[in-house]
Amino acid sequence: DQQVKQNSPSLSVQEGRISILNCDYTNSMFDYFLWYKKYPAEGPTFLISISSIKDKNEDGRFTVFLNKSAKHLSLHIVPSQPGDSAVYFCAASAKRFSGSARQLTFGSGTQLTVLP
Amino acid sequence: EAQVTQNPRYLITVTGKKLTVTCSQNMNHEYMSWYRQDPGLGLRQIYYSMNVEATDKGDVPEGYKVSRKEKRNFPLILESPSPNQTSLYFCASSRQGVETQYFGPGTRLLVL
């Protein structure tokens, strides 16, 4: 049972437009969320994160929104650029027990293609 | 340059032939982890280590072993690989208690 779901395997967007990538989670213990970007033949790289005490976090062209009641988060990229074409993974973290490392649970990823 | 390195990057082997994938980080991170990526399943954690000599199972540990004798190294061992372990493997590291993990470039493994 996947605790973090990305229901859209792929998304195509025109350059300059907004890209919206969605992620749903089921575990109410998750309290920290991250987005990673992955290019072919490379490892995932951290993009942006949000704590459950916030509902929005912005970093340049990237904004993450968190709706805790719906257990839903989204990544907005504005404006989209061809270099943003990559696989985007949503990840969530819950502290398993006091003093432990924070574990990440990943979604299955969404392939974003930004068309010139 | 801060980085996580993995070797080899590509590996083709046969069922039952023991192999080791190395992982090394130069950031003095306490936490290290191994993931496998499969189509439609995202990244699933195999094993993790909170520090030297402290390792624990992740979500899919069957068929794998790890060791953490030094802080910088975290090798993944497949004692008797099987075709269902054909996958893309990533090593990652982070400071203790910090969610942001740094990933290696990946190792693509094919078990025949």
Descriptive account of the structure:
The complex is a heterodimer of chains A (116) and B (112). Chain A has strands at 4-5, 10-14, 19-25, 32-38, 45-51, 56-59, 62-67, 72-77, 86-95, 102-106, 110-115. Chain A is mostly beta strands and 116 residues long. In chain A, strands 2, 4, 5, 9, 10 and 11 form a six-stranded mixed β-sheet that branches. In chain A, strands 1-3-8-7-6 form a five-stranded antiparallel β-sheet, with no helix packed on it. The model of chain A has no long low-confidence stretch (mean pLDDT 92). In chain B, the strands form two sheets. In chain B, strands 2, 4, 5, 6, 9, 10 and 11 form a seven-stranded mixed β-sheet that branches. Chain B has 112 residues and is mainly beta. Chain B has strands spanning 4-7, 10-13, 19-25, 31-38, 42-51, 54-57, 65-66, 76-78, 87-94, 102-103, 107-111. Helix content of chain B is 0%, strand content 51%. Chain B contains no helices and eleven strands. The mean pLDDT of chain B is 94. Chain B is globular. The chains are: A mainly beta (116), B mainly beta (112). Chain A binds chain B through residues 2, 4, 6, 9, 32, 34, 36, 41-46, 49, 89, 91, 93, 100-109, and chain B through 4, 30-31, 35, 40-45, 48, 50, 58, 90, 92, 94, 96-106.
Q: Can I get a quick summary?
A:
The complex is a heterodimer of chains A (116) and B (112). Helix content of chain A is 0%, strand content 56%.
